[in-house]
Design brief:
By secondary structure, this protein is an all-alpha fold. The protein has 2 domains: 109 residues, no CATH class; 224 residues, no CATH class. It is built from 9 helices and 4 strands, in the order E-E-E-E-H-H-H-H-H-H-H-H-H. Strand 1 and strand 2 form a beta hairpin. Helix 6 runs antiparallel to helix 7, helix 6 packs across helix 8 and helix 6 runs antiparallel to helix 9. It is elongated, with a radius of gyration of 31 Å. 32% of the residues are buried.
């Protein structure tokens, strides 16, 4: 029998069924053949296209092909086609018949760590970019009105609150549209589920305290070493609390923004929506690091980049442990509350 050395030794695969190992090679075109594609004629291996080109009437397409037809090959026996494993995706198109393809090693599909999250990282980034652009345009017009109607200190706090509400509204609308409408998934896929939520809250207190104590320490060190003079409006408002000239109404408005709105809305997007898209495509630590980088960069502040990166990394760790947003939301609120407490009561920031 005209059969080369077993091509499995070179990792060769059948180009038509790349999940099946090659057992022979066509004597005409040189294509690797699996057991289902292999045909014998006069004790030689052929692929189907080359076998049809031999002119044997039993090998031409039509009713004559197969056992029992006039002049049919006695060596040929119909075999079921091999089925691909679950989750197999063809990596690239194969060349047409007549050209021996390069061996393509089989790659097992990556395990889906977060089921029910088919959206990609690019889609999540697009939702964030569109939300920021729309919210920035609306917030700019609101800021002009507020600054003309209130004092400088009050206008800063009101601008922070209104711009946060506008941004989070667009962000949540885009996230829920992508999850429910575009992909037909459920809110439980992004961690919004009652099962385990209470345990996640407790986990957020236990794991959040030491992790974010480090982040607060880094923020304090940067504040004292660099003495930043140009920061974003949110950082300026936190620093303003140290002066003691801020009324309780404005402090309560800032607390609602930082301790309620930010933890809930940002965790829905960054941990519930963005992180599963990263985690299903890479290992845990790269996904946590990249999520932390994107979380810090989304705040558009260079001075606070490192503390917010540590914050984002730690929130991903809490989310991995519980798979509900109760933990990240609690830990995020704890971090922001500590910053407000240290700035307002102890005048550290």
């Amino acid at each position: 029998m005209d059969t080369p050395c077993p091509p499995e030794a070179d990792g060769a695969r059948c180009p038509e069924h790349p999940w099946a190992p090659a057992v022979a090679r066509c004597v005409v075109c040189g294509r690797f053949l699996c057991q289902a594609c292999r045909a014998l004629l006069d004790n030689r291996n052929y692929c189907r296209s080359c076998l049809a080109a031999t002119g044997n009437p039993a090998t031409s397409p039509g009713p004559q092909f197969g056992p029992g037809a006039p002049g049919a090959m006695t060596q040929w026996q119909p075999r079921p086609y091999p089925t691909p494993p679950p989750g197999y995706r063809q990596q690239r198109p194969f060349p047409p018949y007549g050209y021996p393809p390069a061996p393509m090693p089989y790659r097992a599909p990556r395990e889906e760590v977060f089921p029910g999250t088919p959206w990609g990282v690019g889609e999540a980034v697009l939702v964030f970019a569109v939300s920021v652009i729309l919210a920035s345009a609306i917030s700019y017009m609101l800021a002009l009105v507020l600054r003309a109607s209130f004092s400088a200190t009050a206008s800063v706090f009101l601008v922070i609150f209104t711009s946060s509400v506008v941004l989070y509204s667009f962000l949540l609308a885009g996230t829920f549209y992508s999850v429910k409408v575009r992909h037909g998934s459920t809110f439980s896929a992004i961690g919004l589920k009652p099962d385990g939520f209470g345990h996640g809250v407790a986990l957020g207190f236990v794991l959040g305290a030491p992790i974010f104590a480090v982040a607060i320490g880094v923020a304090y060190a940067i504040q004292k070493l660099l003495h930043p003079t140009t920061t974003d409006q949110l950082s300026k408002s936190v620093t303003t609390l140290s002066s003691g000239n801020v009324g309780w109404g404005l402090i309560a408005l800032l607390a609602v923004t930082l301790v309620l709105l930010a933890p809930v809305c940002e965790e829905v997007f960054f941990r519930g929506y963005l992180y599963p898209a990263l985690r299903n495509r890479m290992n845990k630590q790269p996904a946590m690091i990249l999520n932390g980088v994107l979380f810090a960069a989304a705040h558009f502040e260079i001075i606070g980049f490192l503390p917010r990166f540590l914050l984002g990394w730690g929130l991903c760790y809490v989310y991995e442990r519980n798979r509900t947003l109760g933990g990240p939301m609690t830990a995020h609120a704890l971090y922001n509350a500590l910053v407000l407490l240290l700035a307002g009561a102890f005048k550290i920031f």
